[in-house]
Design brief:
Length: 102
């Protein structure tokens, strides 16, 4: 990040403008990939991916793009979509039947 800031000049706002203001998630070559994937899962899937602050743009430096992407795909693929009241479901809506108008 420091190198990116130096290359961006003294005014860091120019650096930040370049990644967009719509919840960017950035991973640099020196990142711990497992920690980055953990962070990406939280940033994207918190609240079922419906949080207004959920990561919408992923910027991954070339040197770690392949391992990061492979691990993120594996983690996303492990999510079990379904009925939120099913104990085996890891991602899905939850609404108590008692509150349903039907």
């Amino acid at each position: 990040m420091e190198e990116a800031a130096r290359n961006g000049g003294r005014d860091r706002s120019k650096l930040l403008d370049g990644v967009g203001g719509n919840a960017p998630f950035i991973v640099f070559d020196d990142a711990d990939i497992d920690e980055a994937v953990d962070g990406a899962m939280i940033a994207k899937m918190r609240n079922g991916g419906q949080a207004c602050t959920a990561a919408n743009r992923f910027y991954i430096q070339r040197g770690v793009a392949k391992p990061f992407t492979e691990k993120l795909i594996e983690r996303m693929g492990a999510l079990k979509l379904g009925d939120g009241t099913d104990p085996e479901t890891t991602l899905g809506p939850w609404y108590p039947r008692s509150k349903s108008p039907r």
